[in-house]
Amino acid sequence: MRVTFNELAERELNDAARYYELEQAGLGAAFITEVLRCTEAIADHPEAGPTVLGAIRRRLCQRFPYGLLYTVAGNELRILAVMNLKRRPGYWVGRT
Prior knowledge:
Helices cover about 35% and strands about 30% of the residues. It has about 100 residues and is an alpha+beta fold. It has a single domain, classed as RelE-like (YaeB-like fold, 2-Layer Sandwich). Helix 1 packs antiparallel against helix 2 (about 25-45).
């Protein structure tokens, strides 16, 4: 399955990784590893995540308070947001 990230989702991933790395050396890399693990799990079982809005689904990360919002169209998995679960909900609506 082809995996792509919305430009803003990629920025969220990188910003969160930088934040965690500043908090503790190695934590940023651990965050990226967890997001990649989560992405692989979605690719293996794309229908497993509950729908949150229309065709958009969510997969929660372990260890970090983040969720990946995604859509699946054919053989493409599109990550729409790397969402901090403790911040304002719904900010990502309208992303493709």
